[in-house]
Amino acid sequence: MGIITYVEQTELAALFVYAAALGCVFGALFDLFRILRRATRFAENSITSALFVFFQDILFFLIATAASAIFFYKFNSGRIRLSAIAFMIGGFAAYYFTVGRLVMAVADAIIAFIKELIRRFCRLLLFLFSPIAKLAAAAFDRIEHAIRLILLSAYTKRTLVRYNKLLYK
Q1: Using CA atoms in the order 138, 141, 146, 148, what is the torsion angle rounded to 10 degrees?
Q2: In the chain, which end has fewer C-beta atoms inside a 10 angstrom radius, N or C?
Q3: 59 vs 54, 56, 62, 64, 122, CA distance in Å?
């Protein structure tokens, strides 16, 4: 079996449609990573934020590369067509600038809602446990004061013993 150089137009059209669909899937995957970034925002210029974005980008490109390789082996006998790559990019762009904007707007609203729920839950817990915390803080203050008095008393006794030894040798 030799190398096939002729490809029917219907197969080529199907390849381009599937490539555009794969580009849309890449856009959805990219939106997933964007949602994760927005949900777990670290300090803007921190090393943690940079590492988080770096590893997400590496993971995205590894997944996209593997999916593209499998796509070309499955639908085009392993031959890479630049036109198919262009259709992937076009599918990605079509998703990104249409559905992707809607997805991110909804995701931002959901993230803000969840963060507000978490903030209110933490306030409720703080309100419920604040009397207990005040009692515990007062108890710790009294214990700390008592320990300081005991230590001061011990220090004073040791100092007096030393001075007595020096004075009455």
Answers
A1: -170
A2: N
A3: 9, 5, 5, 9, 33
The answer to whether position 89 is within a domain reads: yes
Residue located via tokens 């992707």 = 100
Domain that holds residue 48: 9-97
Q: What Å distances lie between residue 94 and 28, 78, 135, CA to CA?
A: 11, 26, 60
Those residues with Cβ within 8 angstroms of residue 92's Cβ, 6 or more apart along the chain or in another chain: 23, 24, 26, 27, 30
Q: How does pLDDT run across 121-160, given as a tens digit for each residue?
A: 988 888 777 777 778 888 888 988 888 888 888 778 777 7
DSSP 100: H
Q: Is residue 102 part of a domain?
A: no
Q: Is residue 144 part of a domain?
A: no
Considering its fold, how many domains does the chain have in total?
A: 1
